[in-house]
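Collaborator request, handled under Task 6.
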Amino acid sequence: MEQESLEELLLYIGIGTILGVLLVVTAIIIIKLFTEEYGFISLDDSDDEGLSSQVSVDEAYREQLMQDPEFSRSQELGEQFESRYPYGSLNTQLTREQENFIVEKGVDAWEFPFDTELNGHVQGKTDIVFYGGENLVMSNLPLPSSRNTYYFEVKVTDISPNTNIYAGLATKPYPVWRMVGFNKYSIGYNTSTGYVHNSSVFRRCKLPNRCVVGDILGIGHNPRSGCTWFTFNGRRIPKYFYGFKYSLFPSISADGPCSVSVNFGQRGFVFIEANVKKWGLAPLEGTLKPPPQYGVTEGSIFLQAGESSRSQTCTCSECLANSINSSAHNDSPQNNQDTSNFNNDPDNETQNLINNGRAGSFFAPHHFNTEPVSSQRSMYPLRNCTNASHIHLNNPTTASHNGPPTYQEHDPIALQLEEAKAINFFDHSIPQPPDIPDHINSPHSHEE
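Structure tokens returned to the collaborator:
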């Protein structure tokens, strides 16, 4: 029994030793990841001083920058902006309307809107040109939070010497004269130096890659864990930034002339994994319903009214004769003086002609228009049906008929169509060539 208890004791001691060694090794690895150049850096922007031990502030760099009066003034204004407009003072969460807009438009819902204070312009929604000075543009919509990872890329298309481009994420409101990453709740990658600024111009860490014209910088973000990471020309940079759980907007800033092109997913990414896992901000195409097909009458109030009027057309012989005779243009002075009112019964001859299914019939005036219409404006004389037996005044369908929609009375296109319909090519009033004598057309006239 004593031997068995001794063996169990030695077994427990061995297991405890192994577990202790594993814990020590794990702690050492975690410490190295937080302290070495390529590791994990927290972006917890709380007011506690523990953050300075994770990402130290370069005091020498601070003293160097603060000697510049222009920079000191900009830094002071930036701090005042943070105090006056703290994070949360503006609701930047996606609303229901914005979510529906994203569903309809897809990735095209994101763009960089034009700002009057911007010294530059935006081309094609995502191509930005800076003319000079300190400028910042932010997307119109924040990153969604429904998926685990979102990703976008920034390509440097042109840059002048001594110009710094900062690409990253920021919250709103944000001072437009400050680079992204210089103020709280933002992170920005300086493409010219390789430094990543996180929530302060003095709090930065060095990454190995610097961008020139043609290089592509990628920014990835996990909204659930608050992790942000970068890629360079399609390769992931082995450094991650945690604790950035905010409503973030893709942001681009620069302090000189340059131009960049941003890809939210409307094109293929250089980073292959983002294409395979579909890390774009939204699908390439939305689910916007197509417009109705031409010729489909379902759900059309106008066509429904036209069909109902057609079914109520008077079929008496007198009205049919008037309808046929009215197709010819009448230039008599008597007809030019005739006036009528469309407020009469909708089953008159003109209303039947309007709803007879001919092309261009929808250009006719509304029959409820109380203004008298002269026959000079309309090529068709207005006559009421004289056969009272065919007029259904007590028909509720006829009484509630609203007719076609109202159109401009002096619409030139409508008038031309009406004139074209009024021309009768078989009218004998058109001058004919004189009759040729029969003896001229006779085949024996030349023989004689």
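The cover message to the collaborator said: "The mean pLDDT is 73. Residues 266 and 284 are 6 Å apart (CA to CA). Please let us know whether this matches your experimental observations."
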